[in-house]
Amino acid sequence: MKFSVLLLSKSNEQVRTIRKYTLDNPKAFKNKLLHWAQQFEEVILLDSNEYTQQYSSYDVVLALDALTSIKTDYHNAFDKLKEYQEQTADWIFGYLSYDLKNDTEQLESKNSDGLDFPDLYFFQPKKLFLIKEDQLEVHYLRMVDDEMIEDFELIHTFPETIDFSKNEESPCGKVKISLRITKDVYKEKVNKMLAHIHRGDIYEANFCQEFFAKNSCIDPLHTYQHLNAISQPPFATFLRINDQYLLSASPERYLRKEGNKILSQPIKGTSKRSENTEEDEKLIENLKMDPKERSENVMIVDLVRNDLSKTAIKGSVEVKELCEVYSFKQVHQMISTVVSEINPDTSPVDVIKTTFPMGSMTGAPKISAMQIIENLEESKRGLYSGAVGYFTPDGDFDFNVVIRSILYNALKNYISYTVGGAITAKSDPDKEYEECLLKAKAMREVLEGM
């Protein structure tokens, strides 16, 4: 492999040593890299799974081993993040939980929480790997750059793949998933939400339910790799912060900043897939033309346009794509793309603060929807329907939406996944429940082997 070495100076006088490589097999190297990373207590892998995207900087990003970090509850969380991002002036990686809504609005989160994730966590990695096609950049802070060569040699000793067909018995035993609410209770709650819609309190709201397992454990790496293999989404995430894990097969981008350009890609509208090509094409056309699914998407696009306008240069908010259908291994999804432009002196954290939580996971009007969601849901969302991503030294960022994800607290032996869907005036409670089960299929298959 060929490589070159250079030094990159930062405004705060930190320096990273960078090595550039050409990879013979990027996919195999990615797997080796993730196996090697398990020795660290702070790890974030972001993986596009080679999904073709118009807006993308990297195919794979891995950040690990915190030099500095910020961990906080929702109180003044965005102000603290802004200070940390500006003072660090380096790459920082982390997550925003859904409950940061309580920082931006007069809201609260009182539902049960079995996971106990902090509301916000970001860290400055000592070691960073960036892959685009067959090009790899390795960025190490100079305090650890003497480990680069040894690390790279060690990475190549790890396995390239994992064989899920062996179905080896886990030392944890079989995971038994419990429902936070039954189907009948779910339907009752959807009907209550429909009553709010018919009264005019809201137009749409995302209603979610939790599936969980107490006194259970999993192998986080094996579970993530299995989930990713059967889903192959464009915004997959493996996150470890000490004993807390996120294993995500998310298909959705929340928000991206590149220079002065902001981009949001909300998902609303879901259809199953078929192994029969002709039937699968029909399912795509049915989703495109479904009036309920389109109305869900259009309402959230209007909400996103309004959110982006809070920081946008006047007249710059534009809908680039409306209700386009994209296909993934498990489902078809209806996605829209909304863009805006901001002034150069606008803080990147302010762009996030004024759009968070994302409209696709709340509803419209946003505040009323979040109040009703809190009253009807049984579990605190936490990191579910939040976002994971990074800021660059130049203040650009890219964040996903945490959906289709398994959350795991290894200290408490608690496993959780949550699914939901948009409730509108045309919603049928039975069909909404079936859509939840469709979205939950991959997580349940991985955890229970069904």
From the N-terminal CA to the C-terminal CA, the straight-line distance is 42 Å
Q: Which stretches are low in confidence, meaning pLDDT under 50 for 5 or more residues running?
A: 1-13
**Major sheet characteristics:** 21 strands, antiparallel
Strand content is 25-35%
- If you compute it from the alpha carbons, what radius of gyration comes out, rounded to the nearest whole angstrom? 21 Å
Shape: globular
How large is the count of helical segments? 11
Class by alpha and beta content: alpha+beta
Q: Mean pLDDT across all residues, rounded? A: 93
Explain what you see:
The chain has 450 residues and is an alpha+beta fold. It has eleven helices and 21 strands. The protein has helices spanning 26-37, 77-88, 101-104, 148-155, 183-199, 220-231, 277-289, 291-309, 348-353, 366-376, 429-448, and strands at 3-9, 15-22, 42-47, 60-72, 92-96, 120-132, 135-141, 178-179, 204-213, 235-241, 244-250, 253-258, 261-265, 267-272, 318-327, 331-341, 363-364, 387-391, 397-400, 405-409, 414-423. The protein has a 21-stranded antiparallel beta sheet that branches. Helix 6 crosses helix 11 (429-448). The longest helix has 20 residues, at 429-448. Residues 1-13 have low confidence and may be disordered.
